[in-house]
Fold these 4 entries.
Entry 1:
Amino acid sequence: MTDSKTTDLKTTALNGFHTQQSGQMVEYAGWSMPIKFAGIAEEHRQVRASGGIFDVSHMGRLHLKGLHARRTLERACTRRIRPMQEGQCRYTLVTNENGGVIDDVIVMKHDDDEFTVVCNAANRERVVAHLQGIIDDRAFKAKLDDRTMKTAMVAVQGPKVMDLISRVSSEVPTLKRYRFTVKNLLVAKLVVSRTGYTGEDGVEVILPNSAVPMVMKLLMKEVDPDDPNAVVKPIGLGARDTLRLEAGMPLYGHELRDDWSALSSGLDFAMNLDKSEGEDGEMFIGQEALLRERDGGGPARKLVGLKLEGRRTARQGMPVVADGRAVGEVTSGCVGPTLECSIAMAMVDSSFASGGTQLSINLGKTEASAEVTSLQFYKKP
């Protein structure tokens, strides 16, 4: 089924696959993307129990190469790039001068002069402009190539995925988390990384558009789409959202924004605030603002997890209340299909961010009691 509003949108190289699998297509960040196939809750449970395949070709894939490619990323990213090993992936933030988040990205190091940056679909043009601005401002010798429209990207996630992949590759299942390899498949090069956005094990694959039919055939060759016990089934963006929420993973535009401090996000592991002490002796953009905020007492608000009483769902923007006054707002919420309870993420005043704090969420006509808890609601067995 296709939404009538998707006719003028960009389509991915897997669009025919979605049609074949009866995907319900919707607009997302300028793309026609499948929101669901069999149903969000069913697809969610499929990934947790076995495996699922996601089309994530709408995400940006930027290639950066040249003498100053690493220095460009060192200036743009909140984490150190120099210590990365070849074949390593690193999650990091890209911040503005005020310390707000432009995007969260994955940086992949091919060698000292060549990197791939995977960014969010809605922010691709902003990230391209930001990186190019650094290159131009510093007169760096680096070439930025936006390869998003030339390539596709699929994610295969779930506890049984690596066993399935081992039937076609002996190398990929041996990859450590946040490592990647480049595989030659006839005339096509595939970049396969052990990364994901679901809280489960699995891989993400970047490939030329022309190789999509061949790769999909390899991935699905032992899977009967009509078999209710199939190891891997197609999964839409709806289940991708509930999976990442259960795993406590932020989504740009919800938990991350350019007018919210990166320190509020709880992603301290993704920021090296002592970066100028490295060999390059240069701070990342926004580091000075974040240092001032940290040394001035820390962020005024913090991202927290909330477990709601009952099964009512909190939605983005709903007020979080304490003692009759608003102390924050919901950023994401759902009834977790794995947990079978209502969960949410919220940005709240720091004084209400301690675990166990009792709060309420204004649902409109009523309120739901909620308790502050860990952001990672679900942990893989």
Entry 2:
Amino acid sequence: MRRLLFAFLFIFVLQSGLLAQDKYKISEDDYDNTSIEMADTFRADGKIYVVVGVLTIVLVGMLSYAFIIDRRLRQLESEVNEL
């Protein structure tokens, strides 16, 4: 029953066009574009530092979590080997 429901929903999403993107013509100006407006705007407003700060916090959090899990796993492995 789950497979049937999943198949129905998958086909519905494909048929409804939710996964489709609008097509637009690529011009020569698109290939010559060397600046990224969003990054320039963030840099001009000083918001790029907020973005970098949040990314740094998330990365440090993930690495510290992985380190803590690794340390706990080593302790459990040593307890199992002692038994």
Entry 3:
Amino acid sequence: MNVRRLVVLVVLGAGLPALMLAQKREDFLSIQRDVAQVQDQLKQMQASQDQKMDAIQNALKQALEESAKLSAALAVLQTNINDRLADQQAKVVAPVATLGSKVDELATDTRAVRENVADLGARLGKLDNKLEDISSAVRTLNTPTSVAPPPPAGAPPGTAAGPPPPPGVSADSLWQNALRDRSSGKDELAMNEFSDFVKYFPMSENAPIAQYYIGDLYDRAKQYEDAVQAFDAVLERYPENSRTPDALYMKGVDLMKAGRRTDSATEFKDFLERYPTHALAPKAQAHLKELGVGAAKPAAPRAKKKAN
């Protein structure tokens, strides 16, 4: 029994190394197969990477070629632009320089003319002042000190010649000063000058216009009753003139502003009867509607408005 067991153990001891060697060989072959498979995968990955790198390199090469072409085209374009600008500058600079010289010469000539005109104006002003002084002196010598000169034949009532003006004051200078002060907003000064004009030169053709401007200045100052009296003076003191329609219309406007609606409506009706085709007629009709009064039917124009 013991001998048999010993034999079995001997047999097993002899076959075990062979079995172990066979197992190790199989494991080694499996590892070789795995390594070969990994190597194949690495080769495939390397090939794919190589293909992608080639594609990237080709795209980069094309981009560089396109960039080079674009740079060349831009260089050509820049050269053309520079050439054209240089050509245009060469064509323009000379005429502009010539024009600048001519402008400078013209400015010099204009300055000289302006200086000559200013000198001439100063001389004329001095001459005008001397003439005004002489005229004022002559009027003062020829005018009685206690009795005012009678109005000329055919003059309307209330238009007698006024007192002599102060020395150095002429109708033209007083008129121009009044107009200038009115247009520059110096209403109080203009009011005094227009009043002096009407006072000293009532026979002048500008007298009714000056009287109208007095009413206009009162209207600006919102002194409506004074404005009504001033416009009424245009209608009463002077015959039909260029400002008669305007004075009649503005009299109606200031009566309306003063709250005298009935009197205002009467003036607007009178205006439409006398001047039915005047430019202010639509406004007069609108004011009558505003006052709640119908427009009067046109009638034959009267020679002069009757006094109120």
Entry 4:
Amino acid sequence: MRKAWRASVLSIALCSAPPAAAQTDPAPEPAQSDDAIVVTGETEPPPRREVFDQALELSRVDPGRMYEEALARLTAPLCLDVTGVETDLADELAARIRANAEQLELRLARGRCTPNLVVAFVDDSRELIADLADRHPRMFELLGQAERDEILADDAPVRVWNVVETKWASGAPLAWRHGRQERPNVRGRVNRMLLPTRKDIDFALVVYDLDAVVGMTVVQLADYATMRGLSHTRPASGDQAMTTILALFDDADALSPDERGPAELTSFDIGYLRSVYFWKPEYSVPAVGRLLSVRRRAGDAMMEAGE
């Protein structure tokens, strides 16, 4: 089922994207490539509790299940495909995302591989997602109702479909019954930090509407795809305690493209991603301060950036 779904993603994305040679005005302007993550943010992070609340809000983790869930992350080597823009632009986007992944010490796939992160630029992202949902209703039903509503919203400028699978801590798949995973009961265990399971992002699809990205830079779009594709996050409103690239599309009514969102990954974003990827994947959310450590890691990112 998952292989067929991946094949459909690539087929629909390639068919929906305009020919590369025909793309001129909608494509974001190229940015100078950079092998290191550059962060922006406040000179001093807000109180740790505020940062924790922000991280929890954007993580899609149910606050009532923090001791029962791990933070979803990519565990397989990153295999990236960027489609719908000119080759040179696609290469720049891919290079930036890979550089971000390397800073997090993620493994990169070598040679030919099956993509587990697809970034597509199309005329109508809703049509693409709706087509996929119609072709693979069982896959679509694996998403929570709020996430299904989010990616099918009429006016969303970008849509992200994360395929997140709960597995045993070893990486072995759980059994499926009637289209649902049979998950072990983790309530009442003595060690509330280590879980018997982990949550893997098996595949992520980030689809941008071409009209919505006019004036945005390669770095902005690549960094947004990094946050949405390498972690199971939701878009931000822009009212959070710390700035985040997840609010990139919150300023859609800005007077000029230059006023839209952060220029790149912020200190919060780096702190969040490092907290997701530093610890073992089977650690529960509160284990060793997973999200409580975001503030400290955000501060470290600002120091490294010389702020």
